[in-house]
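Researcher: Re-running this chain for the archive, since the previous output was lost when a drive failed. Same request as before.
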Amino acid sequence: MALSPTRLDILGCPLDRVTMAQTLDTLRGYLKTDKFHLVVTIGSEMIVRAQTDHEFREAVRGAALVVPDSIGAVLAARYGGYPVRERVTGVELTQNMAQQMGPALRIFLLGGAPGVAETAAHRLLSMGPGVHIAGTHDGYFKDDAEIVAQVKASGANVLLVALGFPRQELWLSRHGAACGVQVGIGVGGTFDVLSGRVQRAPMVFQKLGMEWFYRLALQPSRWRRMLALPKFALRVLSGGKQAVKPMANS
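Model: Regenerated structure tokens:
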């Protein structure tokens, strides 16, 4: 009997069928190495973007770990016959890292508006015993080399980048190894949530996979971004078995 694949190909993008616990165990392993590992928290919008953005698609395909951030990715995997047990969102992954991996972490937070990363860092310190904040910097910078040097000098082993996709994944793909960290994760709006600047959807919306609807209700201006969701669903449904399949060598 063939083993169930651990990595799927969804419309050309990888998705690792991992739980939160498995993700944390994988990160612990990464921290014991001297190599850089890009971790992508992927959602439906990102997969749609990858259809037309070659550089972004290659960055995602080159990631060490790609976890299911959105309900769309989870449902697509289920539709293909390869169920994913749970979402691993950027917010929850960051919180669980702080709570369960605290003493092993030296975190640098990069991104957000001025002051947001610092506030989010204080929140992480209150969540997990032993968490060390190596440094912070907002997302308004022009000199990549300066940021790389700052992260490397900080002694961080985990770099959380909140620049929004595709910028955060492209930045990590280009510069993560030079930063001297073992783990780089694009975490989207996580800093805004941790800092209290943005309120996350109530738990009922989270459990139903309807956070996108809650955000749209609060921010109707997001409607253009939400057009990616029906595009994603249509492409998966019309793609048949080729839309969702085991990744080669998974």
